[in-house]
Amino acid sequence: MTGESKTRVSVRIYGQDYTIVGTESPAHIRLVAAFVDDKMHEFSEKNPMLDVPKLAVLTAVNIANEYLKLKEEYQRLAEKLKQKKDGEDDD
Description:
Elements: E1 7-13, E2 16-22, H1 26-46, H2 52-89
Antiparallel strand pairs: 1-2
Helix pairs in contact: 1-2
């Protein structure tokens, strides 16, 4: 046990109710759920023939893709900043 208190939040994603337990604030959990819900609706509009499990996987893959691109960009920028700071330290 890490000592962090857990929060239980009821959310609705793509018409289904879920209780999410986490250490983040209720507002953050609701924001994440709303993001997933919006993405599922977005992909459903583009692919109306997909059943819910396939839609959920497509949504997860796209969100993971966005996350990994942002993570790579963050790492690139962090390295660039480190190099800049290291260059300033040499002065």
